């Protein structure tokens, strides 16, 4: 599949990631977290990786195909909301979706950060 990353939008929910064509809404691929359950707390993309965090489990997916490249349980670090940052070459606009959870009220908020 030879699709530019700028044509793909990622949605994370219910231990799943769905890639959509941003122009048509067509589902390009879906991925279900093999370990852990709950909301997708982070999605971070660059030119070659889609990093996904689901309740303490961290995965790397191919951003074009959804194929899982690696998994790290980060054993001993606990679970909850994860903060992800990457530095590297950026050739197009990227979106980082960060979910912040308030444990006392169990509410979530979404923050979108874009870079040219």
Question: Which tags fit this structure?
Answer:
disordered C terminus; mainly beta; Thrombin, subunit H; 49% strand; 0% helix
Describe the SSE topology.
Layout: E1 8-13, E2 16-21, E3 27-32, E4 40-45, E5 50-54, E6 57-61, E7 68-72, E8 94-102, E9 107-115
Antiparallel strand pairs: 1-2, 2-3, 4-5, 4-8, 5-6, 6-7, 8-9
Short précis:
The protein is mainly β. Helix content is 0%, strand content 49%.
Number of domains: 1
Question: What is the gyration radius calculated from CA atoms?
Answer: 14 Å
Distance between the termini: 25 Å
**Class derived from helix and strand content:** mainly beta
Please tally the helical runs, counting DSSP H or I stretches of 4 or more residues: 0
CATH architecture identity: Beta Barrel
Biggest β-sheet, characterized?
Answer: 6 strands, antiparallel
What's the total number of strands? 9
Arithmetic mean pLDDT: 73
Low-confidence runs of at least 5 consecutive residues: 91-116
Find the CATH topology: Thrombin, subunit H
Shape: globular
Would you state the CATH class?
Answer: Mainly Beta
Question: Largest beta sheet: what is the strand line-up?
Answer: 7-6-5-4-8-9
Explain how this protein is built.
By secondary structure, the protein is mainly beta. It has a single domain, classed as Beta Barrel (Thrombin, subunit H). Helix content is 0%, strand content 49%. The chain is built from no helices and nine strands. The strands form two sheets. It has a six-stranded antiparallel β-sheet with strand order 7-6-5-4-8-9, with no helix packed on it. β6 and β7 form a beta hairpin. The chain is globular and about 40 Å long. The C terminus is likely disordered.
